[in-house]
Amino acid sequence: MPTPHLDTALSGPILDLERCILNAMPSIEQWLRNEWQTHAAPFYCSVDLRNSGFKLAPVDTNLFPGGFNNLNREFMPLCVQAMMAAIDKICTGARSVLLIPESHTRNIFYLQNLAALHAIMRHAGIHVRIGTLLPEITAPTALDLPGGNKLTLEPIQRKGNRVVLEDFDPCVVLLNNDLSTGTPAVLQNLEQTVIPPLHAGWTSRRKSHHFTAYDNVSQQFASLIGIDPWLINPYFASCGKINFREKKGEDCVANTVDEILHQIREKYAEYGVRKDPFVIVKADAGTYGMGIMTVKDGAQVRTLSRKQRNKMAVVKEGLEVTDIMVQEGVYTFENVDDAVAEPVIYMIDRYVVGGFYRVHTERGVDENLNAPGMHFVPLAFEDTCLLPDREAQPGCSANRFYAYGVIARLALLAAAQELEKSEARIEAIMA
Amino acid sequence: MPTPHLDTALSGPILDLERCILNAMPSIEQWLRNEWQTHAAPFYCSVDLRNSGFKLAPVDTNLFPGGFNNLNREFMPLCVQAMMAAIDKICTGARSVLLIPESHTRNIFYLQNLAALHAIMRHAGIHVRIGTLLPEITAPTALDLPGGNKLTLEPIQRKGNRVVLEDFDPCVVLLNNDLSTGTPAVLQNLEQTVIPPLHAGWTSRRKSHHFTAYDNVSQQFASLIGIDPWLINPYFASCGKINFREKKGEDCVANTVDEILHQIREKYAEYGVRKDPFVIVKADAGTYGMGIMTVKDGAQVRTLSRKQRNKMAVVKEGLEVTDIMVQEGVYTFENVDDAVAEPVIYMIDRYVVGGFYRVHTERGVDENLNAPGMHFVPLAFEDTCLLPDREAQPGCSANRFYAYGVIARLALLAAAQELEKSEARIEAIMA
């Protein structure tokens, strides 16, 4: 399958951006190298990008990526090599890792993600076993996967300040679970290294903290390569003390929506973009595309139907939404046939190891493509994001993917800074 | 083209070895991770291996690898990612690198190697230019390569304690020149980082030092996975004060040959190998397969023809041979059709990034395949060395390549230890 076609009517500015990125490549890589000397890259990360033709920006940064199965199998060695580098930093003696996944064991796609992640780690020479938080799993349980593979989930046990499996005392606990429903007691106060740290879970993480860090990173980057930071950074603001069901805090949301729409309108005018601005209203904590809506006018927020209110009121596993983020919507103008597509970039440590497109036939260019129950078609990137070709035209897939890899790494760097800050906050509370 | 066929008549023991390596994979990777905490991996390295069916061993470790063009182009991203890790360690600010190649600019294969290396570094975001030691190049000179690529060689200039090009003051000097003819004055006492260090060149390097370090590494590794170290380590010894033209020192060589043949015979008896043992006599310093001969009896050394003496007396660029190493010969039982093949593994930093086979139609199973004027056919590995498959049979290419990658990394680790020792020797001399 080909790389998604980018709507050419608006391809001028993004090609300029791509060209800027390509031309500045040695400076960008050197700058990133320097940044990684002072900031520790998250263990792994996926970043959803949107490419509107005039703007290329991250819209979501996932610290517990769940789509390793969607990557191009040909680039498995890249994942393994990056995993070797990643595991080095955790603990040199790291030989055994306990992987703790999400609890939705009936999602075959998620199980395939686990199998892919397991294989990457195994090939990097790590002994991995999978321990589940599900209380109904009381003995090792083998699950069949399409293609004849099996995945074994085992019940985790707490022993003192360690989590273990039967005959398996791991030195590292790797979370592939975003802790949306809180941090389970069994994972608290462990003496083992837990990666990502517990405060990277949605119990404490806030999207607005991430995008505040991204503000900072994207400004530095923009001044490095001499561009308007808006080209890579969506406007956003947040509101607290919301209760959608009880219509509390709606004014803040509606006003924030209008403010951001106003800011976007000014930028659209500056760049001659003839499109309707829109914003995305989403839960500040939480994931899985729940509690997300597209809004084109603040008044819409005040006239939500009961169904819409209920939909916005809770995220995954019934967690109540009290804080929301309003973020500039970035159109996606990448298409595969008539379907809209959104690139997702995968990183292990500070290395871009691949990516794929979420291709969705039933969604619009201004809608979230990672929604509950959605059935996107993953389209693995054919190329890596590592081989830009200055001789080729900007817009060719190698160059587009390199630019994607750069912007995704800016989000990764923002995540690193965000985690430093949340760690500092926790230390301040404990002190 | 398929992976070379391994002669099956003798494939039993090597499959046992491969199986041991596969089974011990997490222990091996953990042990290597630990070793790289205390030993700095060379910047890059290639290792020639021989696989006799009953034995798999390195026979040559090159710290200035010259065949990057022979690697599978599909694995270019692996090279780029490893280069990013390698360059990080040299100096974070490393943005500009001066690459100093060998002076044989008429060898189109070597120029293609330079172009490949240049491309890898460029994609890792490094600004690279090529400075030549050739006095006849007094201005930037563009050389045409097959496929329409160009390579520009520029004259290097000394400015104080730095080497520079016109408008280019690099922070790192990368040697792809093995200094067989001595260390040029222009490269001495530089304040810039020189990698590999000057003492890695053949002016000071000795094969016997490398294999002494490999003795140590292979013994540790053998006890880790519970095998006879001989299965991965060729016997060797060295003789000094040789002058082949004047027939000086021949007794030492002949006696050493007989001793090593005796040791091999005992091992062959132990393992039931029905083959004639042979040794390789080679210059202790130097490369390019010059000054190398296959010997099956010490008496042969005493009755060399004048032509043979002359051939042994000098290596590359006329350097006189005064020290030789006698090394157990390892048969190669890998074949492509009727041609013999020898695997060469490439590493950047501590990562295996690919490999190829030297395929030679006119050489025997007991001959050196990297000889002057030889025209081997490079056959790029179809797979990386990173994805062993425990479900598959030992001997399948993924598993064979993983074993090759492990043995090559043992040689890499030996090179790291060898360089530490030579640095310590230099410091002792300077003190």
TrEMBL record, chains A, B:
Keywords: Ligase. The keyword Nucleus does not apply. It comes from the Bacteria. GO terms for molecular function: ligase activity. This is Glutamate--cysteine ligase.
